[in-house]
Design brief:
By secondary structure, the chain is an alpha+beta fold. The chain is about 50% helix and about 15% strand. The longest helix has about 35 residues. The structure holds flavin-adenine dinucleotide. Flavin-adenine dinucleotide (FAD) binds next to strand 3, strand 5, helix 10 and helix 11.
């Protein structure tokens, strides 16, 4: 596997073990991911196994969670996405977008109830922030909660929600109209409550190995005990997104690496004009550029891990890595596809599947444009969002 500047040497035994376990898991347990992509199905049978292997929020502590290093967590995301972005998305949502906020902002009862179940894959979670009319600007959300007796009634609709149709619990971000200033709060909504529906979005041409849906709330009641007590305002969802974007910055490297390895192998085997196409300068230039870009992205991901471990990671740094590494994977998956010629447009090879997936990864968790604006703001001090 491509490791051009010998980053492997910096890994400790636990980090290698987690990476190798994930690599083995995707090779042996996921089955034919190309078939899943064509069918538009997620291999739900592997969720509990992912839990048993500690793939959900392994960088958190307590509640049976392994508290591994941020590098180990990143390597895990990299291996899952080398298989398919859908697999990494399932784990990212469960870990970084559902378990992380419960861990960071939940009550003891919420932690006791949900973290062990989500950690083992016994329960599945989803994160409801995006709405039909509010994607890049979630602070304009219309979903609201109003106090009712000893709880809240929620009304509104969330869309493009990963895992929603298979989720037991949705973390829904909504404005609390009963409080001064309508602050955004996080509500843990069990999906079997009256007034909650989670229809599936079908016919996606990207991230097909992922279950995506809506969370529609029609006057749905949740008790007060289901509100995350530890956070108020957009800081709540945005802090979760920083965690998930960190995993994406690593994951995208995995997808690009898989494209590189596929293209390198294909070019070495495939002969035209009497020799392997890898022997032509034009193809070598593509491999050289691909390896260079992947290596630069790997270095950025590893540096983020060190900063995160030291508690010095800033959200705009994560934006830079998400923006760069996903754009890199989007571009390089296209080059890899090109190197495979006609065969490259089939599901027998991974590059076009990764290429299609990258359209989602480029768009969700803050579009490429939005990360440009976050960086622009950080670099100049001038917000240019509106
Ligand atoms: C498969 C999939 C899974 C997803 N999973 C989840 C999930 O689990 N939970 C969740 O809450 N959301 C999820 N999302 C939603 C995702 O986060 C949004 O699609 C994303 O934030 C963009 O919002 P939008 O689609 O409404 O696009 P819009 O915000 O309408 O943007 C459209 C275009 O306008 C550009 N644009 C917007 N504002 C500006 C600006 N100020 N300046 C310049 N350009 C701008 C954007 O970059 C984009 O190119 C998912 C999306 C997909 C496709």
């Amino acid at each position: 596997m491509l490791d051009y500047v010998s980053l492997e040497g910096d890994l400790d035994a636990e980090e290698r073990l987690i990476r190798d376990t994930a690599r083995e898991f995707v090779a042996e347990e996921v089955g034919d991911v190309g078939e899943h992509w064509l069918d538009g199905t997620f291999p739900t049978g592997v969720i509990e196994e992912m839990g048993e292997l500690g793939f959900f929020a392994p960088n958190l502590d307590g509640y049976g969670l392994p508290n591994v290093s941020e590098t180990a967590y990143g390597l895990l995301m990299q291996e899952l996405e080398a298989c398919d972005s859908g697999l990494r998305s399932m784990a990212s949502v469960q870990g970084a977008l559902v378990m992380y906020p419960i861990h960071a902002y939940g009550s003891d009862e919420q932690k006791d109830e949900w973290l062990p179940r989500l950690g083992t894959g016994d329960a599945v979670g989803c994160f409801g922030l995006t709405e039909p009319e509010h994607g890049s600007n979630p602070s304009a959300m219309e979903t609201y909660a109003e106090r009712d007796a000893d709880g809240y009634r929620l009304t509104g609709s969330k869309t493009w929600i990963t895992n929603a149709p298979i989720a037991d619990v949705a973390l829904v971000w909504a404005r609390d109209r009963s409080a001064e200033g309508d602050p955004v709060r996080g509500f843990l909504v069990e999906t079997d409550r009256d007034g909650v529906s989670t229809g599936e979005i079908t016919d996606k041409l990207s991230l097909r190995v992922s279950v995506t849906g809506e969370v529609v709330l029609d006057d749905a009641f949740v008790p007060e005990a289901n509100v995350l007590p530890g956070v108020e305002g957009m800081q709540g969802p945005l802090s979760c997104l920083t965690q998930a974007r960190y995993g994406i910055a690593w994951g995208a490297v995995g997808a690009a690496r898989d494209c590189f390895e596929t293209a390198r192998e294909y070019a070495t085997d495939r002969e035209q004009f009497g020799k392997p196409i890898a022997g032509f300068q034009l193809q070598q230039e593509k491999l050289a550029e691909m390896a260079t870009q992947i290596t630069l992205a790997q270095l950025l991901a590893h540096r983020l891990a060190d900063l995160k471990e030291a508690g010095r990671l800033r959200a705009p740094q994560v934006s830079m890595a998400k923006r760069n590494n996903v754009a890199m994977a989007r571009e390089q998956s296209r080059v890899a596809r090109e190197m495979l010629g006609g065969n490259g447009i089939t599901a027998d090879y991974s590059p076009m599947r990764h290429m299609a997936n990258m359209e989602t990864v480029y768009t969700y968790e803050g579009t490429h444009d939005i990360h440009s604006l976050i960086l622009g703001h950080d670099l100049t001090g001038i917000p240019a969002f509106e």
